[in-house]
Design a protein that fits this description.
- It is built from twelve helices and no strands.
- By secondary structure, it is mainly α.
Amino acid sequence: MKVDQALRALDGILQREMLRSLRQRARLFSAMVRPLVWLAIFAAGFRSVLGLSITPPYQTYVLYEVYVVPGLAAMMLLFHAMASSLAMVYDREMGSMRLLLTAPLPRWYLLAARLLASVIVGLPLVYLFLFVARFWDVRPPVLGYVAVFPALVLSGLMLGAFGLLVSSMSTQMENFAGVMNFVIFPMFFASTALYPIWRLAEAGPVLATIAAWNPFSSAVELIRFALYLRFDMVSMLVVVACLVAFFLAAVTGYDPGRGLWSRRRGEG
């Protein structure tokens, strides 16, 4: 694989993802409305009943809106990753995914390019949400918007790789829709996106343990700390490790000789 071939393939995949997103205006609209509804309604309702003590990286008491915004940013990445995975299943059924994977480039690179393009397309919406959140007095340091960029990219890649893995195990679009609900909501609610660990521990130690081991919690905390100019080494290591594990499993799943496709071919 030559460098110019790799860049040409990445450019083509990126342009295709951007055109697809621009044509799906309803998807772009819902991607912004969903976290704003949570911030404007859900957070406002919980502000008076959910007190937050000093929780890192915050150095003082904060409003619930301030706490929940990094979790909602991660939620946007999660929903975008699952929507991209649904598009992968659709492309596979229509045949365009098979055509892509037959290109004379390594399979892992094509999947990585697809994953990176999906993250690049989704990041502007996350930044737009972070800026709109300033109207709710969620005002992190200005440099925090720069420092959070690597955290958003790593988290988006990890969640996208997980979506790739899920799509590699799905045989039909109808089945994938159910899998999305089975995956998204437990991953989101059983995490630190909406409540800190100590608050979950009050509800039950089992729930707190699940949230602590949830990779989505590590993505949320990585974004939260970076947005306020702090660095969470443990969360970064967990996100990177899960990214590698999910991506390698997805590459295996899309391998015609070893993954799901080989089983389907054998059944046929």
